[in-house]
Amino acid sequence: MIAAAVGFDLLLLVHIVVALASVVVLATLRASAGALARGAAPDEQRRRFPQRRDWAARVVHLLPVTGLALVATGGPSERLTHPWVLVGIACYLALAGHLEARTLPQERRLADAAATSGGAPAADARALARSVDVIIGLLAIALVAMIAQF
Asked: What pLDDT is recorded for position 112?
């Protein structure tokens, strides 16, 4: 019984660390988009948006893995049918879809523009910032649901 509790506690810690890492990565992406929207110099734009895949933003995909592992090891007190688990899953699905379909393609377009045309349009940077805000909002809703556990 104690080993199971320790395992659950370790998984919970990993889940929290992944959530915090997700917030940090998304906040950094939001700050970078804001800097471009305010007219960052071309060299700063290339530094903030290099032409490569953004694997760090995909750390959010570890949230359902660790969350479902928590449900699986939590015993009868943790079930997929609990409202906070359902809210977390729904928020993740919306967040992941938005991240992969809108945010990351916008980020790639900004990186391409910064590298090839000498600077990304401020309007595109503002659109990326709004897109990241949507993701942060969905993550915040899931966080509130996890803390409140209504």
From this structure: 93
